[in-house]
Recover the amino acids of this structure.
């Protein structure tokens, strides 16, 4: 996650201008270059860009249009944009800042001032990225949190709806966890949650799948492009992986180790259905897994 160097995209229709900025910054940062607005948008969406230095006057698509388009796209909205232009009227500068640029540098510029501004904005970008990452992780287990899950589930749902593809959800709940806490204390309980969370994360091997802590001692997994039969197989693998951790649980009546019960639900989404409906189905299946004896998967 900690990539060594941050990345700057330099956009200017003049190759000489691009070259000057590149020479100034290439020793400290990864540099991408674009000589048109279209090219800039394509790089901004396909590469991991931390900052954009953007010329204003360019043929076809000017810098203002590029910036507006970047700010409209959720994928590129958070990339800070600094305009660099010879246009120095108050209206030009104000316009640039109004449409979302973080700064506006007037040509001819002083190299050390530009470097310092770039450094400061990149430093802020680093903290913003870190905050964003932390806001999506569960503090105890280090896996995705509920907020992350809600966003990802919504995205997966819409993707499956578009592609008429199946989507599965697993709800997992630790068996007799209250007794575990009562027996070992909450600190050991927390430790157990951490181990279970990490093990579940490691069990989901396919790209589109992921696990989150749903709350308390409950976890949830999203399995994209997965019909019911396969969801059941994945769930059973996860269930066995947890028991194989061999975390002693003397108060459990289903195993000598900590175990989970799993409710699985699958659907091919159609208009009018909701993600909440699928979750409810998984929750009902989980209830069945509990009442049918725990340490099992119900579909
Ligand atoms: P069941 O097999 O029916 O799921 O029984 P259970 O005891 O696991 O279910 P219940 O919902 O009654 O208890 C969940 C327990 O999980 C209660 C609570 O103390 C514990 N718990 C929830 N969040 C945390 C946490 O963050 N840390 C610890 N240590 N315990 C937690
Ligand atoms: Mg120009
Ligand atoms: Mg519970
Ligand atoms: Mg439980």
């Amino acid at each position: 996650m900690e990539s060594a160097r941050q990345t700057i995209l330099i956009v200017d229709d003049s190759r000489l201008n691009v070259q000057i900025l590149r020479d100034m910054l290439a020793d400290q940062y990864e540099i991408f270059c674009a000589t048109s607005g279209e090219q800039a948008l394509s790089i901004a969406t396909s590469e991991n860009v931390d900052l954009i230095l953007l010329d204003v006057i360019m043929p076809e698509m000017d810098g203002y249009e590029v910036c507006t388009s970047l700010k409209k796209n959720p994928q590129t909205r958070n990339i800070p944009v600094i305009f660099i232009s010879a246009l120095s009227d108050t209206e030009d500068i104000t316009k640039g800042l109004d449409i979302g640029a973080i700064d506006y540098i007037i040509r001819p510029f002083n190299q050390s001032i530009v470097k310092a501004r770039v450094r400061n904005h990149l430093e802020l970008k680093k903290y913003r990225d870190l905050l964003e990452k932390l806001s999506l992780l569960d503090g105890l287990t280090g896996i995705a949190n509920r907020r992350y899950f809600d966003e990802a589930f919504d995205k997966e749902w819409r993707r499956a709806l578009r592609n008429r593809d199946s989507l599965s959800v697993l709800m997992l709940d630790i068996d007799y966890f209250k007794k575990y806490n009562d027996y070992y204390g909450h600190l050991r309980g927390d430790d157990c949650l951490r181990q279970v969370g990490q093990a579940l994360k490691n069990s989901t091997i396919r790209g589109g799948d992921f696990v989150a802590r749903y709350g308390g001692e409950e976890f949830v997994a999203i399995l994209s492009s997965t019909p019911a039969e396969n969801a059941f197989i994945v769930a059973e693998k996860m269930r066995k992986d947890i028991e194989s951790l061999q975390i002693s649980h003397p108060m459990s009546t289903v195993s000598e180790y900590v175990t989970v019960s799993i409710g699985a639900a699958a659907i091919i989404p159609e208009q009018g259905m909701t993600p909440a409906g699928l979750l409810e189905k998984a929750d009902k299946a989980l209830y069945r897994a509990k009442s049918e004896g725990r340490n099992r998967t119900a579909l």
User: Anything to note?
Assistant: The chain is about 45% helix and 20% strand. Residues 150 and 275 are 9 Å apart (CA to CA).
